[in-house]
Amino acid sequence: MQFFKKMRGCQKRTHSTTDFNELLWSIIGLFVAIGGLSGLQLILFGSLAHGGIIIAPLGASAIIIFSSPNSPFSQPRNLVLGHIISAFCGVSSALIFKEHIWLASGLAVSSAFLCMQLAQAIHPPGGATALFAVIGGANIKQLGYLYVLMPAGIGAVVLMVIALIFINLSKNRQYPQYWR
Q: According to the lineage, what is the superkingdom (predicted)?
C-alpha cells in the first residue's frame, strides 16, 4: 500500500506567477535562438537536414536556458558538456549494439546520465542527444563520432553564444550565473 501512496504526491501544486516582460523576453529569445540556429544551418549547409548545427534536443535546451537562466541545468558548462558527453555515449552505444536498437537506446541514455553526473555537468536534454544518436536515422548514423562535434557540440556552443547575448540584453536577467 505504501508503494501506491507515494504516487499520490505529497505537496500541493504551487502556481508560479511569471512577469509578462520576462515571459516576452523568453519567447523572443527562443525565437531568435532557434531561428538563428536554423538560419545559420541553411546558410552554411543549404538545408535543415541532419548533420549541420541543429538537432531537436537543442530545442529543449533553449527552453531550459531562456525560461530558467539561473538553473544549474542552464549554465554554459552543463549545456555544452552535457550535449558533447551525451553525443559520445549515444554514438558509442549505437556502434556497439548496431543490431539491438532497444539495448543501444537504453545504454545511450543511462550511460549519458552517468557520465554527465561524473563530470558534474547534468543537462537533461543531453539524454535526447544520446538517444537521437541511436534512433536518428541514416543521416545521423553516417556521421559516426562527427555527431559529437557537429551538430551536438557546435550547436550547443552557438546556442550558448546566442543566449549570452540575448539574455543579457534584459536589464533584469543575467546569463550565466557561473562558468564552472
A: Bacteria
